[in-house]
Write a structure and sequence with these properties.
mainly alpha, two-stranded antiparallel sheet, 4 helices, 2 strands, elongated
């Protein structure tokens, strides 16, 4: 069951309602995985955008987008609260659509992707974690809502 943390209101009126932490229990594993994927995708895409942009600009740009999505989900899980849960849920759904769409695109049109993205072939280069991560995130965030 997610733990509650108390935050203080910025207007000095006292304490705000308890904010449900999404990064505890099973959510801690999600925070860790999303954090690792944020760093991995961001560092890889940053290098590729700087050093090899002309080789596969679409693939490297999509990897940078995935890093931003991973970072936002990580931040939302750590922040906690209902608003962050909804934002993370929407981002996980967007991530899943991205993995499915780009994964299918890479299979149908290999020439569009001379180099792989994080989401190529449904995340095969990352042990298919990119396809399982948003599904697991959606399940956790849905359960966190009802808890």
């Amino acid at each position: 069951m997610p733990e509650n943390t108390t935050t203080t209101a910025s207007d000095g009126a006292g304490t705000a309602p308890p904010r449900r932490s999404l990064g505890t229990g099973p959510g801690r594993l999600l925070v860790t995985l999303y954090g690792v994927f944020t760093v991995a995708a961001a560092s890889r895409s940053l290098y590729q955008l700087i050093a090899q942009f002309d080789r596969a600009p679409l693939a490297y740009s999509l990897s940078a987008v995935s890093a931003v999505v991973y970072g936002f989900i990580t931040f939302s899980l750590v922040r906690g609260g209902e608003g962050a849960r909804r934002a993370a849920f929407a981002c996980c759904a967007l991530e899943l659509l991205g993995v499915l769409g780009i994964g299918t695109w890479t299979l149908l049109d290999r020439s569009a992707f001379p180099d792989a993205t994080v989401w190529s072939d449904y995340g095969m280069g990352y042990l298919f974690i990119p396809i399982f991560l948003p599904v697991t995130g959606l399940i956790w965030l849905r359960r966190a809502r009802s808890a």
